[in-house]
Amino acid sequence: MSAQVKGQAAAEASSERRLNMIEAINDALDIMLERDPDVIVMGEDVGYFGGVFRCTAGLQEKHGKTRVFDTPISECGIIGVAVGMGAYGLRPVPEIQFADYIYPGLDQLISEAARLRYRSANDYIAPMTVRSPFGGGIFGGQTHSQSPEAIFTHVSGLKTVIPSTPYDAKGLLISAIEDNDPVIFFEPKRIYNGPFSGYYDKPVEPWKKHPQSAVPEGYYKIPLGKARKVTEGDAMTILAYGTMVHVVESVCREKGVNAEILDLRTLVPLDIEAIEASVEKTGRCLIVHEATRTSGFGAELSALVTERCFYHLEAPVERVTGFDTPYPHSLEWAYFPGPVRIGDAIDKILSE
Amino acid sequence: MADRPDNSAARKSNKPALALHVPEPKYRPGDEVDYSHLDIPAAGAQPRPDEASDPKDMLDFAYGLVRVLGEDNRAHGAWDPKLDPDTLRTMLHNMALVRAFDDRMFRGQRQGKTSFYMKCTGEEATSVAASMALASDDMVFPSYRQQGILIARGYPIIEMINQIYSNKGDKLKGRQLPIMYSSREHSFFSISGNLATQTPQAVGWAMASAIKGDSRIAATWVGEGSTAEGDFHSACTFATVYNAPVILNVINNQWAISSFSGFAGADRTTFAARALGYGLAGLRVDGNDALACYAAQQWAANRARANAGPTLIEYFTYRAEGHSTSDDPTGYRSAQEREEWPLGDPIMRLKNHLIEIGEWDEERQEKMDLECAERVKAATKEAEKNGILGHGLHHPFHTMFEDVYEELPWHLEEQAEQAIRERKIKWPESHPMDEAGK
Question: Is ipTM strictly over 0.90?
Answer without folding.
Answer: yes
